[in-house]
Design goal:
Immunoglobulin-like; eight-stranded antiparallel sheet; 1 helix; 38 strands; 53% strand
Length: 493
């Protein structure tokens, strides 16, 4: 009887154990539930857009991707994707094993078909969606660059690590975790570089090398370091290779600090619609540190840009902190946007305003909307005759670019149409395309040109110049580009 009772007890135990196991089982093949995180403008929240996007160049998902935040309420399979805009899109699928806020990386697929625009994507997950913008630049190179890495085949030489970056175990890297490599270019063209993932981290970069000889390439780190110590990342570019040495620090205890809202923040750099930010774009805020250690200050992504800073406070007291910007402003027209810092996931009740300028120089070129916002400005000198010039580039490369000029007697008159047929006033327009070919219109004494290229100044002050322009420009072969609906609103340098 005791044997029978023991056998029955075992059956009951295993039955109970099996029953409990079934209750703990999750079917990860079932769709997950949740929603995309977005701000009040429905901009996607996350680490935003990574990589350089150029017309006609195939995208590499290891470098070209977007990071979005998802609030997962039920675990399971997920599919997050964008619509297709101008030949490319973003996509990710997988499984959420945990609930809560999670970051998801969507890799880019395809080839951008238009340049000089910001492509706006809708990102979809379940019944939620948010938006983000991707700046596409013109590709001045259709072939791959050929270059050697300085230090090949040993340790990379001429390496510069961003002094504001922190490489620390357990602390996620961001856009300021950059490394500059020195290279020697023998053939200009496009490049894409990405290292293997070591210690949970990888480095990547892409772009166009336009000049022969010594150049610098910037790689951006991504990931979360798993351990501290020195790691050696092989960097490969064609047949050239060198080793990149990166030291990851031991984790520090978190600092204790508060944002000093009574001290005004200082915004640095120029923020322009559809122009990617650069290291000159940052804001200086002030914090009161009561206990030294690590810190991480971020803002929401608003109008396509966000600010962040991470590092170590080594002293107590009131001190400045630079929050560096990342992303590309989506909208402008001289609008102002308020950014609120977050400390330990809690929003601080003070903000700093960032003014975003509208398109500096815009026009239609044979009907194609084009803008020349990079380094756009006006220059004004008086060398007996007043000379006013307006200049801007399409991308961070030298060309395509646009140059307008008025050289007249007396003074520059507002709302007066200056044309190339008004000699001795000299009016000119020079458009340099991606191949650096010059398309020009200029005053030539004794010649009447129809239709005439015209520049009109709406207003001119010591700080800003506003006006319009329109007319044909021609190259040395006699081909014509007609510029219409030209408008500029630029600072005077």
């Amino acid at each position: 009887m005791k044997l029978i009772a023991y056998f029955i007890a075992c059956i009951c135990f295993f039955s109970l154990f099996t029953s409990c196991q079934k209750e703990l089982y999750f079917d990860y093949t079932e769709p997950s539930k949740g929603s995309l995180k977005a701000n009040a403008y429905n901009d996607c929240l996350g680490d935003s857009v990574h990589g350089i996007y150029s017309k006609g160049l195939s995208l590499d998902g290891n470098y070209n991707y977007i990071d979005v935040l998802v609030n997962v309420t039920e675990v399971g399979a997920y599919l997050i994707k964008s619509d297709t805009v101008h030949g490319y899109s973003f996509f990710s699928d997988g499984v959420f094993y945990n609930t809560g806020i999670q970051s998801v990386r969507l890799k880019a697929f395809g080839i951008p078909s238009m340049a000089g625009v910001v492509d706006y994507f809708n990102i979809y997950y379940n019944d939620s969606h948010c938006m983000l913008g991707v700046q596409v630049r013109d590709s001045v190179a259709t072939t791959n660059a050929i270059f050697t890495l300085n230090g090949d085949p040993n340790t990379c030489s001429g390496v510069t690590i961003n002094p504001n970056a922190i490489f620390m175990q357990g602390q996620a890297l961001n856009t300021i975790n950059t490394v500059n490599l020195s290279v020697n270019v023998t053939t200009i063209g496009a490049y894409i570089i990405h290292t293997d993932t070591l210690n949970g981290v990888s480095f990547s970069g892409s772009g166009v090398l336009n000049t022969l000889g010594a150049n610098t390439i910037t790689l951006v780190g991504t990931g979360i370091p798993l351990n501290f110590g020195n790691y050696y990342f092989p960097v490969t570019a064609g047949s050239s290779q060198c080793g990149l040495s990166v030291v990851f620090e031991k984790p520090h205890l978190p600092a204790v600090y508060t944002i000093n809202c009574s001290q005004n923040s200082v915004v640095s750099g120029i923020y322009t619609s559809e122009v990617p930010i650069d290291p000159s774009n940052y804001v200086t805020i002030y914090v009161n540190v009561t206990d030294t250690g690590t810190y991480n200050i971020v803002t929401d992504t608003i109008n396509g840009i966000s600010f962040s800073a991470a590092g170590i406070f080594t002293s107590i007291g009131n001190q400045p902190v630079r929050l560096f910007a990342s992303g590309t402003p989506l909208n402008g027209s001289h609008a102002s946007f308020n950014f609120y810092p977050y400390v330990n996931s809690s929003q601080v009740n003070c903000s700093f305003p960032v003014n975003v300028n509208g398109k500096y120089i815009e026009c239609n070129m044979n009907g194609v909307p084009t803008h020349f916002n990079v380094d756009a400005s006006a220059g004004f000198v008086n060398l007996g005759n007043p000379i006013l010039s307006v200049d801007g580039a399409l991308t961070t490369t030298i060309n395509p670019s646009l140059h307008l000029q008025i050289n007249t007697s007396g003074s520059i008159v507002s709302n007066f149409p200056y044309t190339i047929n008004q000699s001795p006033t000299i009016v000119s327009c020079n458009y340099y395309d991606g191949s650096s070919m010059n398309w020009a219109a200029a005053t030539i004494a004794g010649q009447t040109q129809t239709p005439a290229f015209t520049i009109t100044i709406s207003s001119l002050s010591a700080t800003r110049c506003v006006g319009t322009f329109e007319g044909p420009v021609r190259n040395s072969n006699g081909d014509t580009i007609y510029i219409s609906m030209g408008y500029f609103d630029v600072p005077v340098r």
